[in-house]
Amino acid sequence: MSRTCELTGKKPMVGHTVSHSNIKTKRRYLPNLVQVTVHSDALGQSYGARVSAAALRTVDKRGGLDAFLAKAKDDELSPKMLKIKKLISKKASEAAA
Q: How high is the pLDDT of residue 84?
């Protein structure tokens, strides 16, 4: 399982741990990922996802998964979330017509 957020595309970063004597040692900064169940109001269904804590706060701020996915860029989303985004937009266009 990759350490990538399914909503924002956040991945591990590489940097240095710098000691008091200024010796640099390579290390990885991992994103704060949590396994959550997110609910789509438009589809009336819940989905499991591995999401960063920052993305969870953003989902709440934007008013739910549907609103978050509507504004999200396609290249940042995982294939699973991209499929859900297309289902939501399809459902919205059917409701509008």
A: 96
